[in-house]
Amino acid sequence: MTDLLVNGLAQPGLPADDRGFLYGDLLFETIAFKDGRAPLWAWHWQRLSVSSERLGLVRPSEALVLEECLRLAGSRHCVIRFTLTRGSGGRAYTPPTDPVCRRIVQRRPWPDSIDRFRHEGMRLLTSPVHLASDSVLAGMKHGNRLEQVLAARECAQRGGDEALLQDTQGRLVEAIASNLVVVIDGLTLTPATDRAGVSGVGLAWLREQPGVALETAEITVMDLARAEEVLVINSVAGIRPVTAVDDHRFAIGATCRAWQRLWSERVGT
Amino acid sequence: MTDLLVNGLAQPGLPADDRGFLYGDLLFETIAFKDGRAPLWAWHWQRLSVSSERLGLVRPSEALVLEECLRLAGSRHCVIRFTLTRGSGGRAYTPPTDPVCRRIVQRRPWPDSIDRFRHEGMRLLTSPVHLASDSVLAGMKHGNRLEQVLAARECAQRGGDEALLQDTQGRLVEAIASNLVVVIDGLTLTPATDRAGVSGVGLAWLREQPGVALETAEITVMDLARAEEVLVINSVAGIRPVTAVDDHRFAIGATCRAWQRLWSERVGT
Description:
2 copies of one chain form a homodimer. Chain A is 27% helix and 27% strand. Chain A is built from 7 helices and 14 strands. The first copy, chain A, folds into 2 domains: 4-110, D-amino Acid Aminotransferase, Chain A, domain 1 (2-Layer Sandwich); 114-266, Alpha-Beta Barrel (D-amino Acid Aminotransferase, Chain A, domain 2). In chain A, the strands form 2 sheets. In chain A, strands 6, 7, 8, 9, 10, 11, 12, 13 and 14 form a 9-stranded mixed β-sheet that branches. In chain A, strands 2-1-5-4-3 form a 5-stranded antiparallel β-sheet. By secondary structure, chain A is α+β, with helices and mostly antiparallel strands. The first copy, chain A, has helices spanning 19-23, 41-55, 62-73, 113-120, 146-157, 201-207, 254-266; strands at 4-6, 9-10, 26-33, 78-85, 102-109, 122-126, 162-166, 172-175, 179-184, 187-190, 214-216, 229-234, 238-245, 248-249.
């Protein structure tokens, strides 16, 4: 059984001249599937659509991509990575005028750790790796993820579950693979991702839920000292409470548990 | 005949779980070969060594890499891309503790346009795509090159030969695929690449040549108005005069022609 489709065909590998490999010239979505459904599909497709417009990638039809993802997922509880690359060709960095974009679908098992983190929470570290701010790439889930790799490597070396990333101006942006929400004075705050970071699908879903009033705000590490709750969210792992940032501990609060119930009822992955 | 080696073996493609493809988790060198020699090999290897230390990639032996590159190059006048990826494995962004790095060698034909550009010069545009400054990745030739791809796409759409990139603070950094040298008041100036940009191999070679006194300086687009000469340099195309930046024209000067003679004598690719 294959766990890789390239343009809809089972393949042993990727063409070495694909611009995704050469330059990170790609977008991707990491999508939770369960029982033959991807509950957050619409939000993934929306982000991919907006980002492919920004990068000049030619978007395939939604039905085609969904069919290919479902073909690999079947009824499994699993994670599908859908990658859209600018394909092959062009002159070095200069892409072809009319790129023939390549669709790559990969399947991964459902991560064991998710249930435990949702229940017990995560211990975060503040990362010494800062995200370059005012990036022309901000907000997109593109293939240039070396900052995240370096942060994740450093975090693992120090034994953290996840790490908080600041931009080069000292503003909190997100965790390595999740968006950040902080409850301060009863307000639920999240940093902007239009200068650095990824516009998260889990967060986009959350914003649309009844009774949820997320405010975009500048947040610094210092602000965390007066936070009542801290949590992280992404489209696969859902909502996970943060029980510590460095040496500072947080209780798991009512907001987190309420949103987790919402997630269970409405997303269910 | 193959034009791709993966860990020394001829292969039809790449493993789809390679972190180079997934995250741009790689370094590369684009190396000019001629008559079975790479005259700038030592400078390429030096940059790769420093950068692999920074990223935590495990460096293969220099002799092994050179042998593999030469196997593909033969006696051709060609360009070899040597890529060192962090290989497969790890948990998403978190790399394996002891990565088994992958060596990928690819061959490209020698670009036709180089001779003409060296002789006639290039018309540059200032790019609206700014490089994020203060990047933790600055200086390295890594696989996260979407900023360059976007700049190259925009430049091609407007008909430029190359484009000048500024950082998000408005300082000139480099051209898309070359470093920048500006002659002002008889001084030869080049921007720093420790906050954004690539530490170029051609420039590193140039710095070591007798009689060459390059100074690192902050340069803005405005400063170009009083430049006597402008030129760009990279390890493959060598030294090319800039005859225009946007609507401002420059004569091809004595510094450029002298350095081109030096290049011909000592590099010869």
